[in-house]
Amino acid sequence: MSKLIKLLTGGADSEDPLSIEDYTKTGGFSALKKAAVTKNEDIIAEVKKAKLLGRGGAAYPAGSKWEHLFHIQETPRYIVCNADEGEPGTFKDRFIMDRMPLKLLEGIIIAGFVFRAKAGYIYVRGEYRKIQKRLLETIENVKASGFLGRNILGSGFDFDIHVISGAGAYVCGENSALLNSTEGKVGRPRIKPPHLAEVGLFLKPTLVNNVESFTNIPLIVHMGGEAFLQAGHSESGGTKLVCLSGHSRNRGVYEIPLGKVTLRDLIYDPEIGGGLAADKKLKFFHLGGQSGTIGSIDQLDTVYSYTDLKKAGLSVGSGAVVVMDESVSILEYLIGVTEFFIHESCGKCIPCREGNRQLHQFLKKLSVPDAATVEDLNTLRRLIRTMCDSSFCGLGQTAAAALKSAWNHFKTEIEANVRAGGMK
Asked: Does residue 125 sit in the same domain as residue 209?
């Protein structure tokens, strides 16, 4: 029996993903039509019932976020889609924007209706130039069909969607930094509170959700929150788009039901990962991007859900699954991860800016025989705690997540070069 599902990705194999005619033939915009005549409170109730957790990485309940904004009276309100997919090993948002842009736009428009928002913005990763053009073309098609723009569906509601290009900064994947960048400011995170629902884009109430999150909204409106919940895990409804890369034999994007597939299935099932390329042995896997956790072969039977992975000390994150075989040095891999964070730190806070440089120095030292001491290991542990507890935003707080988790599984290899007598 297949472990894959096409709940979200149904229609992704359409010959013309931009065709309004093809999309409506398969039920496209029926959720929008339903939302236009449904009480806003009822739509939010269905999103809450669905237990849709944010698909960008933080896994914050979408229903709670929507409810928070709904009770804020100040206007105008804005809808922002975070499409700044800069997490290494993650490319599922690109897949959605390329193959299912109409479903994404429908989700954003529904949100616009619910909050009677002034406008919507899609902040797209700067490297996705072709995707940006594709979205602009899709927006024009939707406008021409009366589902976007002035007097949508004869409701008297006006709503437009704008595409904003990022400039390649990883930190702009953080929602408040993304809003600053959208406003033309330096892309650095804001102090919270106030929350973005209260003081967001242009200092007005704002809803910010990920591409995959918005794309799930038409499904929830169409099938109902309870049915959506049943399709996934009891604590996190629906499916998840997973990105397999690295030494996986079958690299790509796969849709799986949450809570019904294990990590072993993801990596070895012939329909999904198909094992490792060149038939090598698995050494470790990195979940959720560079800021995610590293797991080992003894965790392969962990069920892929937000709840089960968290219990195992792992995380869903962005949905990335980077598979590494036995030829990879864990220290060399971690050095590469740290170099990424050094390059992408915005430099706003010392724990992140200087902490990542210090992490890099310690890892380089650990890679040289007899260069590191027991005291170096103790200092490294204190540094990790400081970065996790004191960094201003999620970038610094999770920059050492890969090292911290890898240390649990590969302690002997990481400490192999510590000066004689230094092993613990």
From this structure: yes
| Cα torsion 372, 374, 377, 378: sign | negative
Are 94 and 128 in contact, with CB atoms under 8 Å apart? yes
Q: How many residues does the structure list for the chain?
A: 424
Domain count, the chain: 3
3-state secondary structure of 189: coil
Q: Could you tell me the residue range of the domain that residue 316 belongs to?
A: 239-320
Does the model's pTM come out above 0.70? yes
The neighbour count for residue 118, using CB atoms within 10 Å, is 17
Rounded Cα distance, 415 and 419, in Å = 9
Which residue is it, tokens 């650095």?
Answer: 188
Alpha carbon distance, N-terminus to C-terminus of the chain: 46
Co-location of 110 and 247 in the same domain: no
In this structure, is residue 8 part of a structural domain? no
The CA distance from 382 to 386, in Å, is 6
Closest to 113 measured CA to CA, from 23, 225, 32: 32
**Residue 137 and residue 90 share a domain:** yes
Domain presence at residue 155? yes
**320, 348, 370 - which closes a domain:** 320
Collapsing DSSP states into helix, strand and coil, what is residue 422? Answer: coil
Q: Is residue 50 part of a domain?
A: yes
Residue 122 CA to residue 146 CA, distance in Å, equals 20
pLDDT block averages, 10 residues each, the chain of length 424: 92 92 96 97 98 95 98 97 96 98 98 98 97 98 97 96 96 97 96 95 98 98 98 97 98 98 98 95 97 97 98 96 98 98 95 97 96 96 97 95 97 94 47
What is the spatial distance between Cα 27 and Cα 79, in angstroms, rounded to a whole number? 24
In a domain, 423, yes or no: no
Sign of dihedral through CA atoms 77, 83, 88, 91?
positive
Based on the domain organization, do 75 and 222 belong to the same domain? Answer: yes
Each as own residue / partner, the long-range contacts of residues 193-200 (CB below 8 Å, 24 or more positions apart, any chain) are 195/68, 197/65, 197/68, 197/69, 197/72, 198/72, 198/74, 200/78, 200/80
Judge contact between 325 and 282, C-beta under 8 A.
yes
